[in-house]
Design a protein that fits this description.
mainly alpha; 4 helices; elongated
Length: 118
């Protein structure tokens, strides 16, 4: 449950008893539960509205994929085995780049200046 152990949960219960008191604790827990349900309902409604607005092409869209960690994991790390076991694919993807030769400037020589470009 949220990565909490029994000791942390017991500590939270004791702190809640000290803050709210034994008579108001059930009311606070009930209000927290209602708030969580409302937040979950609003998030689900927003996700459904987003999917409906995007159209049928994005029916499998998951907003959690927009998280950078999930995006990298899904698009870069998912097919890691394919690239490591088939290095010939990498060779077919890479292309050679041969830049044009550049005239080097001599000592004290100014580079060309194009007044129209600036």
């Amino acid at each position: 449950m949220f990565g909490l152990g029994w000791m942390e949960i017991c500590a939270l219960v004791v702190i809640a008893l000290l803050v709210f008191g034994p008579d108001k604790l059930p009311q606070a827990a009930s209000q927290a539960g209602k708030t969580l349900r409302n937040l979950r309902r609003m998030a689900n409604s927003a996700r459904d509205d987003l999917r409906a607005g995007l159209g049928p092409e994005f029916s499998n869209f998951d907003p959690s994929d927009l998280n950078p960690k999930n995006f990298v994991r899904k698009h870069l790390l998912e097919d890691e085995d394919d690239w490591t076991t088939k290095p010939q694919q990498l060779e077919s993807v890479t292309t050679s780049y041969d830049p044009e030769p550049v005239d080097e400037l001599g000592y004290g020589e100014l580079p060309p200046y194009d007044a129209e470009a600036t």
